[in-house]
Each structure stands twice: as C-alpha cells, then as structure tokens.
Amino acid sequence: MAACTATVDTIQPITCRGLSDHLKRRQPASGTLFSASRRQLTPRSEPVARSAVGLHITCAVQRLDSPSTSGVAPTEWFQKTIALPAYRRGCHVVTRKILEQLPELADFEVGMANLFIQHTSASLTINENASPDVPLDLNDSLDRIAPEGHHYRHLDEGLDDMPAHVKSSLMGASLSLPVRQGGFALGTWQGIYLNEHRNYGGSRSLVITIQGQKRSDGRAYGRSYREQRF
C-alpha cells in the first residue's frame, strides 16, 4: 500500500492514498476513482483518471509482505560524487570500485540509482564481467566505429579527442540501475563499465543519485561488493 503527499497546480498540499481529486477532473476512464474531501481521499468504485499531469507526489511505500500495518517508511533521496582512478584507454569493469566508495547503498531496501559521469570523453555502460576478452573486443569495436585521423574538424586537443567525444555519445553518460537489498540488482554476468576514450584521461568523477526506501528496522545490509561477481 502507498501513502502519498501530493502537490497540485495550485501549490496546495493534499494527503492521499492513491490519486488526488485533482485527477478526478482529468481524462475519465474505467477503473477506480478516489472520492475526496479537500484533504483526505478514500477509494470508491467509479471511473478513474489515468493522467497525472501537474501532480507532484512524494510516496511512502510499505512492502505487501511486511507484518507491520503502520509506520510506512518514506521514499528518501541520497546523492554523492565519487572519483574513479585514472585508467588507460579502454573499457574497464569498475563495479567494485564504485561500491567501495558507496557504503550508503547498503541502507536501501529497494529503489533506483542513477550514475552520471561528468565528462565528455568517457562513458558508462553495462556488459559482461567474466571474460577479460569482452572489454578488449568492445574497445576495438569502438575504435573501428570512430577511428583517429585528420578527417575531423576538432583537432585542437589531439587526435584521440574527437573520437572520444563520438564514443562518449554512442555509449552514454549515465546508467539507471535498480537497487535491491543494499546492492545493485545486476545480473550474474553483468558489471558496470567505465569506458575511457582518451589516452590520458585522468581521474573521472561520477555523480550517484539514489531514490528509494530504507530498511524498516534501520539496519544496513552487508557490504554488497564482497558478495557480487565483477
């Protein structure tokens, strides 16, 4: 079940369970509508609005299998910037390096994590963490897609710079990862890759933002990076 605090276009807070009466006035469709006073909403059987345009909701979610029926834990936000050490040009599995600098992740029961790299000549991706040939083949493939040469206009920072920008845009600057029981919910053979596209890129900064629910007992899970494969 979810208890939500909603703010509508009028900037008036509304305490609700589900949808606010703001939605009652938008796009009726089949389903369940919530009859409401100005402050409190209770469910009844009528058409429901599907659109949440103009509605900003902060929800506290309780696990359905939880024995407790009260004390719903709130959704919390956490953000941190970490620095990865300098790597040679290529693709590198850095899951362990990230988790070693993110002990706060162990506090979260469930949620989502966004990893954002603050550079235009490096990138992030998810790929195989087992075979050492995969990072090498991936980097070779990127070199074939965006080779060095004088055919680029932007040559001010070296022959490896413009290809690095191309590779960064192809691979992406951010990742969204599910959080489960104090760790990233990666597959058995998945790892987080830092793709270093410059010959001498130096240290790389990552901004990590987590939105989720912490454990209801206030405890933290064990250091998850010790239990995962990389």
Automatic annotation (TrEMBL):
InterPro entries, alphabetized: UPF0047_YjbQ-like, YjbQ-like_sf
PROSITE patterns reported in the protein's UniProt record: UPF0047
Pfam families associated with the record: YjbQ
Domain of life where this protein originates: Eukaryota
Signal peptide: none
Family classification: Belongs to the UPF0047 family.
Protein name (database record): Secondary thiamine-phosphate synthase enzyme
